[in-house]
């Protein structure tokens, strides 16, 4: 059965659809020895992944901090969901992992990550490692107990070697979604001014602050509930993976006098937001969360600020909230001497984000695609 993001009328139990194997396939190609990775492996795994990224002509690199964070992730069990392949000298030559966001409700997702060192490609290691990952992903999905549509997914940059794309295709994945990487000149000779945006009271633009972070999570879950493949983020998920977070470049829009009764009467208002409204908590209605990736500057050949996520609560769309937050981020990038503002966007984003970015001067630089097996 093939599922989409909209659950079919009758859905077999996840344990049945996942078709999880009792044992995982052995990896014999390349003569490597295999074991689970641990946090102590973070530095060598980082080196391995960066060698893979360089060979795949990726425009970004990993930092030791990012990789170390992945070993503290609430989305995987390192003992069962990672695999490190070592050569006869004990040097890591391949790495694979499976992550599963714990907050998923209406779509249960697993993502496959990793790769094979370029010096050891062409030996069949990648094919067998991917088979292990898919099998383990099926086990994770079956064990979730969440009887909703399910997905096994992996990403590949458009400019990655064709062999990487073929690897997914031969393993039964389909091209499910396409993403564009965009940039906007901020400080170059041809840069246009960042627009000044006024918000109608009681909306107010404020810098990101820790005391508003939970309210921002709730805004994000509302903003992205109509986006393909998106699922609510738990508190643990939301707070994880912030080694490159740039709070000085992040901005929020709050409603100082929300119409609480109308929001509570709205059937789309989620339970957590409703509880926060009843408790008189601040209401974040839009946000721009940014990251700083200094290690990518020499790879891309320029400095930039990166908008990780931009979102607006559905009830507040059409009030220039996104433009105000994004423009504030761009001004902060420029004030710190960044040449470009960068971000990525789903080409089929339902909120019209692609058109918004184009109107603000963002242009495509490259892209990526998501490969998926839907269950």
From TrEMBL:
Residues annotated as domain N-acetyltransferase: 32-195, 225-375
Gene3D superfamilies, per the entry: 3.40.630.30
Xref: PROSITE patterns: GNAT
Superkingdom of the organism of origin: Bacteria
GO MF: acyltransferase activity, transferring groups other than amino-acyl groups
UniProtKB keywords: Acyltransferase, Transferase
PANTHER family: ACETYLTRANSFERASE, N-ACETYLTRANSFERASE DOMAIN-CONTAINING PROTEIN
Protein name: GNAT family N-acetyltransferase
